[in-house]
Design a protein that fits this description.
Blueprint (H helix, E strand, L loop, with lengths): L4 H22 L3 E6 L14 H10 L5 E3 L5 E3 L10 E4 L5 E6 L14 H10 L3 H4 L14 H6 L11 E5 L2 E6 L20 H4 L3 E5 L4 E5 L3 H5 L5 H8 L17 E7 L2 E6 L16 E6 L5 H7 L4 E5 L2 H9 L4 E7 L2 E7 L9 H9 L4 H7 L4 E2 L10 H4 L2 H7 L7 H9 L35 E7 L3 H13 L6 E7 L1 H10 L12 E7 L7 H4 L16 H11 L6 H18 L2 E14 L2 E2 L17 E2 L1
Parallel strand pairs: 1-12, 17-18, 17-19
Antiparallel strand pairs: 2-3, 4-5, 5-7, 6-7, 8-9, 10-11, 11-12, 13-20, 14-20, 15-19, 15-20, 16-20, 21-22
């Protein structure tokens, strides 16, 4: 039978329609994001990497305060809060923020999210019970009653005066007068939900009129049967291999956790997610975070085997991405952070500032600008990034005040002559740099005849690790430093860096780590550099200096309008930091995020990660 042209067209149309409908119904849209490897920590407080933070962005949500693409902090009245929080100041100067939640928030399981879940976040993460498994407990650090609450051996039935549960959808947080003013005041009372039933099964959040507290609602036989304390319970619900730290099952973000293995993770759409603070929802069904070879990451995006990589800084790779604009889109922005050589200030030779400064003088940082960044970056001499407004406005002043560490073996030897490592092997004869060669093992020693040995740990398949190893191996011998460099996976490096100060000294091996850090918009050096946090994941290098402490406090104790004072204290802080040199800054650079052209909508920036931008990323 001969078909007419019209009939053939109709048949083809219906076949095509069936194929399209089938694809839409059965196929999932998947975004594959490459990274060097996750450490697998998906709950804050355990020293996770920036790549783990991306997963946390995707699966945790509904924070009362959000950071916008422009780096501003705003209350989420679109999805979370029923209205802007009200404030009141009492006769003693304590300031209370009262929050009313929208009543249609749900966990990914479909269960309701209430004020109990927001208050638990403050109560649990401010307790010693939390410190039994995590490294830091500072959630309510600025609230009334925090110090007494934080010192208690257990917080079961103990009220926190600065946290009030006012109803199923209403709560209040009160900042202590002594913590005001603060340059970023609203961040002191920001909160997000954690599920009471998941984190503390059998417990409730209550309020006795003097403050909210964690109430043990279990029957007596349950308590005596074991796991009687909060610390014991959260060790099981959070820190066990199947706990929320590694397998987060009850979450509130745009996505929900599926699995994590081999340095990667998979998340899928959360069916109960409302919207983000802009009223947007994601459209991509699944996001696969995949561990890939960093040497070929741009090539993989061009080929389409990976859809997105972020934070590309190597000049050669950037040029490669630009040349393939028909296949990929490269989005650039100045980094709100810097690359660094982190130093352990809590033990060994790098505990001495003279040794740390000597390291600075034995490193040619221009190698990164020329060989690595290819002109897409600049040198920095302190803990700041090119994108920060207060750096831009004090750039000239800092340039005049800071020591610009350049390769200078004479200055390195002069610093070490002022350290304890100023002798030959006998512990008596002064070290003579003229005797040192690359092969004669002529090293510095202290008076007890201990050799000056510095060990470096970097990540595998990383050009930065190679360049650092080459630099230090080429120059350390000139100042009598014995040197060793090793490579390891990301999780191994992070464990040595974040938790090195808690290891027995016999198990400590490394003094230098190549890392990078990015800053949030609320730039507050207090947590990173104040001695009260030395040896925690906030200040893992362990630096402790009273002058630095005082300057970090001065930067905090300002009204939000006192920008000129903030800049003044920022300069003073960076000058002192530059003298102590707890880290050697290597570069601040221009970031490039590279996405395959089958996707669109990427709008990342200095403080806006791809995982925060997920609602705008779409399949073309």
């Amino acid at each position: 039978m001969k078909l007419s042209k019209k009939l053939i067209v109709l048949v083809l149309f219906f076949v095509s329609a069936l194929v399209l409908v089938g694809c839409k119904k059965n196929d999932k849209t998947v975004l594959k994001v490459g990274n060097p490897g996750l450490s697998g920590d998906f709950v804050a407080g355990f020293g996770s990497s920036a790549y783990d933070v991306n997963v946390r962005d995707l699966i945790h949500g509904y924070g009362t305060l959000v950071e916008t693409e422009a780096g501003e902090f705003v209350w989420d009245t679109k999805a979370v809060l029923a209205s802007t929080p009200t404030t009141a100041t009492d006769a003693e100067g304590n300031k209370t923020y009262t929050f009313k939640l929208q009543e249609n928030l749900k966990w990914n399981t479909g269960e309701k999210i209430t004020a109990h879940d927001y208050v638990l976040n403050i109560l649990l993460l401010s307790s010693k019970d939390w410190l039994a498994i995590a490294d830091t407990a500072v959630a309510g650090i600025d609230l009334v009653g925090y110090e007494e609450y934080n010192k208690a051996e257990t917080v079961a039935e103990l009220p926190l005066a600065g946290a009030r549960l006012l109803g199923d959808y209403e709560f209040a947080l009160t900042i202590r007068e002594e913590n005001l003013p603060y340059f970023y005041e609203t961040t002191m009372v920001s909160s997000g939900p954690i599920d009471v039933e998941t984190y503390l099964p059998g417990f409730e959040v209550k309020d006795n009129g003097s403050g909210a507290y964690i109430h043990d609602a279990r029957a007596k036989e349950e308590i005596t049967a074991g796991n009687a304390t909060i610390a014991q319970i959260i060790e099981s619900t959070i820190d066990s291999p199947s706990g929320q730290r590694y397998q987060p099952t009850v979450t509130s973000g745009p996505y929900q956790f599926v699995s994590a293995a081999y340095g990667g993770a998979i998340v899928e759409l959360n069916p109960n997610f409302k919207t983000n603070y802009e009223g947007k929802k994601p459209t991509i069904d699944e996001v696969h975070l995949v561990k890939i070879n960093q040497e070929t990451n741009v090539s993989q995006v061009i080929s389409g085997s990976i859809d997105l990589i972020t934070g590309v800084i190597e000049g050669e790779k950037i040029e490669q991405a630009k040349a393939a604009k028909d296949k990929v889109t490269a989005r650039s922005y100045m980094r709100n952070g810097y690359g660094l050589l982190a130093m352990a200030s809590y033990y060994g030779p790098t505990a001495q500032p003279e040794v740390r400064r000597a390291v600075g003088y034995l490193f040619d940082r221009n190698v990164f600008l020329n060989e690595f960044l290819g002109g897409y970056g600049s040198l920095v001499n302190g803990p700041y990034g090119e994108a920060q407004w207060f750096f831009k406005e004090t750039k000239d002043e800092l340039a005049a005040a800071l020591n610009n560490y350049v390769l200078d073996e004479n200055k390195a030897n002069a610093e070490l002559d002022n350290s304890t490592f100023k002798f030959e092997a006998d512990g008596v004869t002064p070290f003579d740099p003229a005797k040192a060669t690359k092969t004669n093992s002529y090293y510095r020693h202290d008076a007890s005849k201990k050799v000056l040995e510095i060990n470096h740990l970097g990540t595998t398949e990383n050009q930065v690790t190679v360049l650092i190893g080459q630099q230090l191996d080429s120059n350390f011998w000139k100042a009598g430093i014995k040197f060793k460099s090793n490579e390891a996976e990301w999780d191994t490096l992070l464990k040595n860096y974040y938790y090195g100060s808690t290891l027995p000294e016999s198990e400590r091996e490394y003094h230098l780590f190549n890392l990078a850090t990015n800053f949030y918009s609320n730039y507050d050096p207090f947590y990173s550099w104040h001695s009260s946090f030395a040896g925690t994941t906030y200040n893992p290098g362990g630096i402790a200096d009273t002058e630095l402490d005082a300057l970090t406090v001065k930067m905090r104790e300002l009204e939000n309008s006192e920008t000129e004072k903030f800049k003044e204290y920022f300069v003073d802080f960076v000058v002192r930091w530059n003298e102590l040199l707890p880290n050697l800054p290597l570069y601040s650079n221009e970031y490039y995020d590279v996405m395959n052209n089958k996707f669109t909508g990427l709008e990342t920036g200095p403080v806006w990660r791809w995982s925060q931008d997920i609602c705008d990323i779409k399949l073309k």
